[in-house]
Amino acid sequence: MKDLPARRLLLVHAHPDDESIINGATMARYAAEGAHVALVTCTLGEEGEVIPPGLAHLAADRDGGLGEHRADELAAAMRELGVTDHRFLGGPGRFHDSGMMGTEQNHRPGAFWAADVDQAAGHLVGVIRSLRPQVLVTYDPDGGYGHPDHIQAHRVATRAVELAADPAYDAGAGAPHTVAKVYWNRVPRSVAEDAFARLRDTAAGAFPGIAAIDDVPGVVADAGITTEIDGTAYAARKTAAMRAHATQITVDGTFFALSNDLGQPLFTTEYYELVRGTPDVGDGAREYDLFAGLPDAALAPGART
Ligand SMILES: [Zn+2]
């Protein structure tokens, strides 16, 4: 039994690669600064497309095996970010990738989209009550861009925060724990617009096409941003983590593409909207630390229960 560090951050994501693309710099920074950074990934991403032709046989409509391969990619990415605590919700393969909205994969037995939210959340309650994170990061109710597994990850994470705090909920899952701050992943529209302008000016030729701003998950008006985490010093780690997801991502300098080959910016400052807890903005307009404003008593080392 080993005490966990005073600051504990839990991130909930849908597929391997989402964490590195969206939060890679944040995760690397907090891990380097001695916080406990834990990742729960809800599916193995079995339905993803495969970029490298040499690995195309792993696709679900070919030989299969992409989920296991992506679990290995995720482990490699976490080594790049310095994150040692990463798990799959309910264990690897417990919930299956649902594919894009409207596909028949959404309704297959075991599909994450078809899972009962309370039942799936129960797995996460155990993690929350064990790690006792002060901060949880997940997607907005639209999953950032409408993918069923991302929407479901939001629902499950949100429900798990409620249940973990409820003393009446399954005593077998550990002592109740209230997560002090919950954040949704965001990108300010002005930052996205500037970055896409730079992409068009400097790197358009590197990609067959360029993504639309609204392809980027979580883009909102700047006023919706409460918190920004400057991970510039961890840019190389984030880039390396994204490269580790080689079946899903190609990186070119400060830009990357998914399997659709459309270039988009790689952000090393990452943005959030605080939706539970009190923002601690000091004299500025934003927070610059996910743990900002938490009382010392909330930041004590935590024993695993
Ligand atoms: Zn995803």
Automatic annotation (TrEMBL):
<dbReference type="Pfam" id="PF02585">
    <property type="entry name" value="PIG-L"/>
</dbReference>
<feature type="binding site">
    <location>
        <position position="18"/>
    </location>
    <ligand>
        <name>Zn(2+)</name>
    </ligand>
</feature>
<feature type="binding site">
    <location>
        <position position="15"/>
    </location>
    <ligand>
        <name>Zn(2+)</name>
    </ligand>
</feature>
<protein>
    <recommendedName>
        <fullName>1D-myo-inositol 2-acetamido-2-deoxy-alpha-D-glucopyranoside deacetylase</fullName>
        <ecNumber>3.5.1.103</ecNumber>
    </recommendedName>
</protein>
<keyword id="KW-0479">Metal-binding</keyword>
<dbReference type="InterPro" id="IPR003737">
    <property type="entry name" value="GlcNAc_PI_deacetylase-related"/>
</dbReference>
<dbReference type="InterPro" id="IPR017810">
    <property type="entry name" value="Mycothiol_biosynthesis_MshB"/>
</dbReference>
<keyword id="KW-0862">Zinc</keyword>
<keyword id="KW-0378">Hydrolase</keyword>
<comment type="similarity">
    <text>Belongs to the MshB deacetylase family.</text>
</comment>
<dbReference type="InterPro" id="IPR024078">
    <property type="entry name" value="LmbE-like_dom_sf"/>
</dbReference>
<feature type="binding site">
    <location>
        <position position="150"/>
    </location>
    <ligand>
        <name>Zn(2+)</name>
    </ligand>
</feature>
<dbReference type="GO" id="GO:0035595">
    <property type="term" value="F:N-acetylglucosaminylinositol deacetylase activity"/>
</dbReference>
<comment type="function">
    <text>Catalyzes the deacetylation of 1D-myo-inositol 2-acetamido-2-deoxy-alpha-D-glucopyranoside (GlcNAc-Ins) in the mycothiol biosynthesis pathway.</text>
</comment>
